[in-house]
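Example record

The entry below shows one chain as it appears in the dataset: sequence first, then structure tokens.
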Amino acid sequence: MSIFVLCCQIEYSFQEIMTKSTQKEKKYSAIIMAAGFSSRMGTQKMFLPFTAHECFLSRLIAVYESYGSKEVVLVVNSQGAEHIQKNFNLAGNIRIIKNPHPEWQKFYSLQLACQILTNTEAVFVQNIDNPFTNAEVLMILEKAAGKGDYILPEYRNKGGHPFLISSHVIRQVAEHQNPQEHLKFFLKQFKTLRVPVQNHEILANINTPEAYEQWFNKAL
């Protein structure tokens, strides 16, 4: 298959995006991938403190709920699912999927989520190790939807998270025969649009206590 890569050099006004976004019902869902063992961190990253009153997971759920996501799918391991069910009061549009093989590639977590999505035009794919996603980034990606199948935000030519995939990619992921596919390589076959954003936080990848301290200016 041919590889299509486009580079979007248009920078959108946040006010323009906000106005257009609030004028219509949201049609995009979100997948939060948090099934890993977090062995380098020493504790499950989804429950790390974001603020005094929020953990990574609750912060991301709040962002996507505020944005108006049609549904939010949490892909977690069995221990994480148990903790969430005991300690979180989730809205009806939030679904929990247990990944029975958290040791596999991230593709499998994405595939499990894509297989249960219902009538969504596109979905944001969010790693738990970046809790800094905000409405402005989501709306910039939304603005670019339809111009590519794999919409990737970038800061100074470096790709970040979350990214947005089209319904075409959702179907291909859901039906793919190899659940241990390498996600990044798989996505390269689709029409890709890289969208510049003025937000270095899209590059966050908090996998160790040292990385947490670097981003939050405090130790765990």
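Notes for this example: Strands lie at 5-7, 28-34, 72-76, 94-98, 122-127, 150-155, 158-159, 163-166, 192-196. Helices lie at 14-22, 56-67, 78-87, 106-114, 135-144, 167-175, 183-187, 209-216.
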